[in-house]
Design the sequence.
């Protein structure tokens, strides 16, 4: 709710969604809450970018969805990782770590 | 896998649209609900929480739109709705839609039809196994040949073919063929069908399998074959034998000789000639039997009647095969040199070199005659399409200005320019699509009409006009090109509006802005320029045809019937042939209504000819190049029958017979060339045929120049000798008769006269005038089609001009009203409007003349009797177009002058 909430680096939203789904299937609201919690409120995800991202991931075959009854006894759409989604998350994570480490090294030497 | 998931999910959404929307709606509602509950937990009231949740999401519809645009099926949906919207707009303007579709259908249809023909005779490969491996073998750059020739492809003699077959190395198999005609009627009235002489490996090389029975093989084609069989084509089998399976073993009569049918070729196989077909294929070895020992080409060392084609061995290129052919050439021509050749002829013959040439697209005489004219016509057709597109662009531009406010409004509420252009283009796409579809339908019948107009009874064509990928691609390409041509500029122009300005503007200007009007002017000017070019083309071809049809042939072509009485079947000895032919002639002369009749060996302009060397004087062979002349052998009365004026001397008479002094008649050109313009009557000359010299002949008469083989030729030097003095008369009589009687009556009289002499002869007829006109088919095609295009172009351009002038008058109503109320009279208003159209016309005609001068050069080789930059034609075209165009703009001018000034001023 504050102005300090950061905008996401381009292309990282998909990776964050995949990560939150790695533990268990979740619905849209659950995913947005989980991202906010895990980032300690740094990333606040806008529904306007969240839902198109779901559609994108679904179409790429990385996540699949299912209508289930949620905790408050309502029908909700639950997303879960597919096999390719899990692989994708693994390679993306590795790539991300490699890049972050490289950037960190550069920033350290520069100072 | 991702691709399939995507495709499948997209299709599911596309077809289960309502469910997909419902699910998206449910999901978002669920999200909002959960968000609201969460916010209420932190202490908000329900209303506050709902409001906050909604604000956070930033508009449910916007999010939905974002989700939708992440999927491909949405683009199809948008296109579909654009097309539906376009269709609705077109339904509201049926006149516009109708005119647009009609002009596009005509333009695309005509272009596609011409392209279909080009595709069939030029681009398509033969429908046989691996056509790209085929190559033909013929003499490289043969300038002239000596001897006698028959058929459309007189490339080789039989002796040469045998040598090629024995010594070639580049082909795994090779064959020879020669097109001809067979009379399949066992007696009486001639029934000619299309036939092919083929060597043994013809079918095998082409990889053709029989539909019924078997095909000819190497074993069927051996010298002196007496009881060989023949193969019939699938279509001949269908229409002559009703597809009867027991056809094999039945006999067919070929020039009165029975031949057993051994099999039927497969459907769709028409030989290796594009644009032609065959009914019967017979082995080469049967030629002497069918033609008779006198007329047979096979034993003649100087008889040219075959063409050769083969399948290259793997690893052999055409170039390599060609090189091998060249290596064996010296020995080959040495071995096949006709012994009767004189030294000059022998020298030319021995210098010939064979070569191999790619033949995947078969051979075609049509191609040589029609390829360039067809490309030219395709160019003219494309110009018509451009003019039609310009008209549409003009109409769409007019609509664009009418929809300026709508566009401004839509952009103001957030539509992107690209989205609007897409929507406008969808409308054009719809027009082009419907136009192309109708055009393709039209092309199917148009191309058939085209082929039918080139096909005659004596020269039947068969063009396989199936639509293949090339034709399909061409039509689609045309549709897309026209769509972009007429749709893009107006769409760009329509959306090039500043929303604020448009909404503010009241639409009440005094005179119209030049910038917006400029494009329409450019379009009309180019339409006029292009249509002038087309009109010039049309007039050039029409006048060329007129000149050809009325050219001075030196004889009268009307009222002449040609009868060919073939009496080979009577087996008359040589010395009885002329008396018998003379008897036939006398019987014809006795028919009531026949004014005069004569026999000639060669009918002028029939395409046949004969040429021999002329040796002036009574002895010795002159040094240097010996000139030749063309020949005809005629009976007395030939010149009177054709009404060719006799200038000096006398006609042949009954005293000019074998044994008497040899006589000849020459024409003016002959006299000019060989007698140096002196009166030739009484002079002597000799004739050298191959190495045999005959003569001396005394010239007894001089006649006017006449055409010999072609209407386009410049006068040939002709020498006539009496038919009665021929050493070896033919066993047939070509009788020309002049009569005013109706042709059908005359034909039956001639038939009964021939029957009275002997009923067992082949009689056939030709009307002289028709025969000559069949030689003008190509010119008539060019004149007709270019005329059609020219009229269409002028019509479209004038409609365009009319539209622009009317539009201008409508836009300047206020101005005209003010002028009138200030005292301008009718005439000055008319002048005001006409000045505008005169300007457009002037610039258009100026550009058009330049364009036509450049373009008409392409037609120069097809024209007769006039230059491509013929001043009279240009003047005529300019005047015609100017008059029609001014008449068309006079209508809106008159309307403007009759405006009620008050009304006009009040007009918004």
Sequence:
């Amino acid at each position: 709710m504050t102005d300090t909430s950061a905008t996401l680096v381009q292309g990282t939203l998909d990776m964050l969604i995949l990560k939150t789904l790695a533990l268990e299937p979740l619905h849209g609201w659950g995913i947005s809450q989980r991202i906010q919690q895990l980032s300690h409120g740094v990333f606040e995800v806008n529904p306007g970018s969240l839902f198109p991202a779901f559609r994108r991931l679904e179409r790429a075959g990385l996540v699949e969805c299912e209508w289930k009854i949620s905790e408050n006894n309502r029908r909700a759409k639950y997303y879960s990782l597919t096999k390719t989604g899990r692989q994708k998350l693994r390679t993306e994570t590795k790539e991300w770590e490699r890049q972050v480490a490289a950037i960190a090294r550069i920033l350290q030497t520069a100072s | 896998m991702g691709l399939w998931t995507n495709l499948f999910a997209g299709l599911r959404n596309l077809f289960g649209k309502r469910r997909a929307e419902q699910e998206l709606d449910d999901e978002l509602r669920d999200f909002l609900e959960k968000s609201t509950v969460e916010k209420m937990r932190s202490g908000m009231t329900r209303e506050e929480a709902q409001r906050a949740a909604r604000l956070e999401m930033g508009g449910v519809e916007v999010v939905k739109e974002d989700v939708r645009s992440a999927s491909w099926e949405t683009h199809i949906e948008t296109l579909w709705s654009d097309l539906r919207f376009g269709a609705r707009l077109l339904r509201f303007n049926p006149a516009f839609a109708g005119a647009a579709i009609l002009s596009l259908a005509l333009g695309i249809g005509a272009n596609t039809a011409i392209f279909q023909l080009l595709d069939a005779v030029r681009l398509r490969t033969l429908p046989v196994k691996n056509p790209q491996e085929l190559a033909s073998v013929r003499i490289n750059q043969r300038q002239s040949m000596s001897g006698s020739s028959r058929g459309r492809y007189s490339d080789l003699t039989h002796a040469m073919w045998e040598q090629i077959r024995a010594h070639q190395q580049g082909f795994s198999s090779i064959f020879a063929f020669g097109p001809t005609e067979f009379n399949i009627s066992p007696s009486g009235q001639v029934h000619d069908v299309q036939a092919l002489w083929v060597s043994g490996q013809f079918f095998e090389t082409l990889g053709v399998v029989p539909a019924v029975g078997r095909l000819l093989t190497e074993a069927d084609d051996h010298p002196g074959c007496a009881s060989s069989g023949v193969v019939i084509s699938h279509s001949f089998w269908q229409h002559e034998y009703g597809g009867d399976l027991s056809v094999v073993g039945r006999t067919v009569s070929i020039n009165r000789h029975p031949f057993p049918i051994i099999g039927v070729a497969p459907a769709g196989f028409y030989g290796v000639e594009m644009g032609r077909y065959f009914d019967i294929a017979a082995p080469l070895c049967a030629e002497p039997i069918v033609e008779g020992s006198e007329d047979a080409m096979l034993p003649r060392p100087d008889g040219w009647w075959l063409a050769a084609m083969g399948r290259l061995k793997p690893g052999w290129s055409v170039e390599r095969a060609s090189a091998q052919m060249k290596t064996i050439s010296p020995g080959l021509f040495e071995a096949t040199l006709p012994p009767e050749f004189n030294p000059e002829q022998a020298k030319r013959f021995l210098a010939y070199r064979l070569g191999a040439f790619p033949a995947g697209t078969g051979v075609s005489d049509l191609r040589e005659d029609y390829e360039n004219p067809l490309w030219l016509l395709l160019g003219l057709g494309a110009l018509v399409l451009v003019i039609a597109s310009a008209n549409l662009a003009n109409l769409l531009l007019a609509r664009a200005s009418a929809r300026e406010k709508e566009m401004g409004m839509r952009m103001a509420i957030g539509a992107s320019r690209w989205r609007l252009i897409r929507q406008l283009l969808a409308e054009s796409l719809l027009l082009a699509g419907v136009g192309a579809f109708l055009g393709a339908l039209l092309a199917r019948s148009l191309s058939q009409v085209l082929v039918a107009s080139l096909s005659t009874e004596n020269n039947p064509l068969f063009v396989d006009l199936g639509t293949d990928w090339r034709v399909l691609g061409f039509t689609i390409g045309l549709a897309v090109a026209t769509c972009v041509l007429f749709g893009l500029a107006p769409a760009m122009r329509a959306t090039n509006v500043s929303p604020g300005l448009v909404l503010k503007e009241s639409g009440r200007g005094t005179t119209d802005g030049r910038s917006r009007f400029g494009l329409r002017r450019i379009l009309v000017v180019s339409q006029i320029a292009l249509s002038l070019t087309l009109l010039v083309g049309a007039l050039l071809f029409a006048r060329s045809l007129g000149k050809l049809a009325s050219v001075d042939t030196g004889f009268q072509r009307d009222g002449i019937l040609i009868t060919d009485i073939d009496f080979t079947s009577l087996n008359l000895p040589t010395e009885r042939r002329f008396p018998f032919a003379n008897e036939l002639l006398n019987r014809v002369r006795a028919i009531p209504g026949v004014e005069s009749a004569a026999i000639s060996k060669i009918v002028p302009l029939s395409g046949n000819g004969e040429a021999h060397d002329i040796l002036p004087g009574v002895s010795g062979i002159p040094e240097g190049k010996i000139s030749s002349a063309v020949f005809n052998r005629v009976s007395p009365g030939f010149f009177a029958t054709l009404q060719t004026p006799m200038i000096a001397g006398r006609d042949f008479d009954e005293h000019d017979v074998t044994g008497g002094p040899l006589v000849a008649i020459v024409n003016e050109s002959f006299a000019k060339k060989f007698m140096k313009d002196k009166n030739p009557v009484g002079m002597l000359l000799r004739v050298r045929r191959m190495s045999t010299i005959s003569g001396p002949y005394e010239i007894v008469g001089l006649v006017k120049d006449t055409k010999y083989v072609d209407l386009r030729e410049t006068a040939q030097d002709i020498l006539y000798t009496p038919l009665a003095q021929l050493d070896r008369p033919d066993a047939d009589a070509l009788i020309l008769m002049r009569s005013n009687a109706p042709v059908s009556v005359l034909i039956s009289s001639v038939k009964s006269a021939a029957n009275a002499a002997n009923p067992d002869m082949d009689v056939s007829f030709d009307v002289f005038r028709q025969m000559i006109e069949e030689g003008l088919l190509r010119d008539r095609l060019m004149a007709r089609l270019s005329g059609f295009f020219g009229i269409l172009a002028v019509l479209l351009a004038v409609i365009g001009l009319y539209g622009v002038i009317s539009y201008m008058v409508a836009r300047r109503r206020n101005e005209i009203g003010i002028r009138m109320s200030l005292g301008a009279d009718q005439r000055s208003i008319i002048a005001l409007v006409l000045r505008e159209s005169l300007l457009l016309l002037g610039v258009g005609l100026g550009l058009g003349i330049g364009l036509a001068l450049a373009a008409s050069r392409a037609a120069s080789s097809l024209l007769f009797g006039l230059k491509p930059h013929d001043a009279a034609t240009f003047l005529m075209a300019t005047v015609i177009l100017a008059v029609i165009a001014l008449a068309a703009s006079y209508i809106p001018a008159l309307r403007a002058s009759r405006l009620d000034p008050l009304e006009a001023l009040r007009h918004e």
